[in-house]
Amino acid sequence: MTVILAAEPIPEQHVEDLQQQGLTIINLDNVQPEQLATIDIMFGWNKMVGPKILATPNHRLKWIQAASSGVDYLPLATLSEQGIIVSNAKGMHAVPIAQTVMSYILYFTRGIRQSLSSQANKEWRHHEIGRATETLEHRTIMVFGTGQIGHQIAVYAKALGLKTIGINRHGEKRDAFDEILTDQDYQTKLADADFVVNMMPLTPETENFFDTAFFNAMGEGHYFFNLGRGASINETALMAQLNNGHLAGAAIDVAQTEPLPETSPLWTTTNLVITPHISGYIPDIHERLFRIFEQNLPVFLTDGQLAVNQVDLSAGY
Questions:
Q1: Treating both helix axes as pointing N-terminal to C-terminal, what angle do 94-109 and 112-120 enclose, rounded to 10 degrees?
Q2: For 20-40, how does the pLDDT look when each residue is reduced to its tens digit (9 = 90+)?
């Protein structure tokens, strides 16, 4: 009998189908210590229960379906040692995250930021705000990470008239990007990028990637958006470049410490927009996650393999 731990809710209409297939579903709230060794599959990850399963002698866990694209929060080395495979939610969040990036761009360029301030003060600053607006034709966006999310960002950006430059490890060509560079030669075009977006997974190579030298090399008056991982950027360096005016604006959907502490200086940094890790949220997130899960389930039950979205545990994505 195959046992699935629903660390994330499985939509009710699918629970009955799984049970009819002879599968046992245990909800996270109901799991008992003596059941930990019997769990074969985790639908989602839980930082309290997951490590307990991994530490249980002779446990049966063989597959984790993560609820996110990035999996740096999982104990990847331990999973690899124990022969546990992982699938992620790659692609599920592409549209909402790309739409969030577009909202950042329009917020900073189309007078929305200034209009909100004007509204709060009950001021009709028609000409002043109008003259400060910018259009996007012939501007350039540089996206670090050209997977499904990066691709969707490029699709939307081209619809707004932007030139698109993608950055990946090996310079592999990707649709919707006018140009592809690697993470070793992007410097040749960095100063020309009006908007820089981070969508890279967190790995040893991408940790603290966006540092003082990087922000100094960006063009004056340009914008930086981080929707990848908080640890990929030096937050102190970003704040310095915003406070001294070198960067015109930035937006972060992720932070090194989450929740962001009330004492963090990020809250009051000039021209910084903070969204609380919401860019990937969608109303039917668990239904969409299950669609990935159900593609893999028959293959896993047959031969212990996965059909889609398997994570390379050594690479971290």
A1: 70
A2: 999 999 999 999 999 999 999
CB neighbours of 126 closer than 8 A, spacing ≥ 6?
Answer: none
List the domains of the chain with CATH numbers: 3-91+283-303 (3.40.50.720), 94-274 (3.40.50.720)
Q: What is the pLDDT of residue 138?
A: 93
Q: What is the pLDDT of residues 243-283, one digit of tens each?
A: 999 999 999 999 999 999 999 999 999 999 999 999 999 99
Residue at 265: amino acid letter = P
pLDDT of residue 123: 98
Beta partners for residue 198, in sequence order: 144, 226
Mean pLDDT computed over 221-225? 98
Per-residue DSSP letters for the chain? --EEEESSPPPHHHHHHHHHTT-EEEEGGG--GGGGGG--EEES--TTHHHHHHTSTT----EEE-SSS--TTS-HHHHHHTT-EEE--TTTTHHHHHHHHHHHHHHHHSSHHHHHHHHHTT---HHHHHHH----TT-EEEEE--SHHHHHHHHHHHHTT-EEEEEESS----TT-SEEEETTTTHHHHTT-SEEEE-PPP-TTTTT-B-HHHHHHSPTTEEEEE-S-GGGB-HHHHHHHHHTTSEEEEEES--SSSSPPTT-GGGG-TTEEE--S-TT--TTHHHHHHHHHHHHHHHHHHHS--SS-B--TTTT-
Q: Are 65 and 300 in contact (CB under 8 A)?
A: no
CA 73 to chain centroid: 12
Phi then psi for 309, rounded to 5 degrees?
Answer: 60, 25
Query: Which pLDDT value is given to residue 195?
Result: 99
Best CA proximity match to 52, nearest among 121, 5, 3: 5
This prediction has a pTM of 0.90
pLDDT of residue 63: 99
Q: In what order do the strands lie in the sheet with 24-27?
A: 24-27, 3-6, 41-43, 63-65, 85-87
